[in-house]
User: Fold this.
Amino acid sequence: MKIQNLLEKNGIKIFLFVLICFIWGSTWFTIKVGLQELPTLFSLSMRFLLAGIVLLILLKKLNIQVPVNEKQLFLYFYLTFFSFLLPFSFVYWAEMTIPSNLASILFATMPFFCGNFFKDLSKGRFKFNSRDWLVYWFRWSCVYF
Assistant:
């Protein structure tokens, strides 16, 4: 059965929505529990190793081809480092001292800081209103929580 046909069914959409809410909602608690028993980087590595294996199985099962060339590999490594390894290393480190619910709220504010950092970094080459940017991401965070 094609993935498009499967996603057209409302029951599957509701199940996937509930599943992603459960996964995202339990992430912070799971990190906190894992850190009580395992070293920080080992816990982080096991989490992403398990996620990578699941993703590879899904790609194989759904027969999805991932482009692999020099440009794509650079992009994969760049995104891996700046979107996963670096931020989640800080999250795991922070959760050794702060409650998991505070960590989730702080992580949800990341778009605010990224937007302001990007505006400063771009030196005015990209024109957007800071207030609109913050309102957009605040609404997104409210929907998320």
About this structure: The radius of gyration is 18 Å.
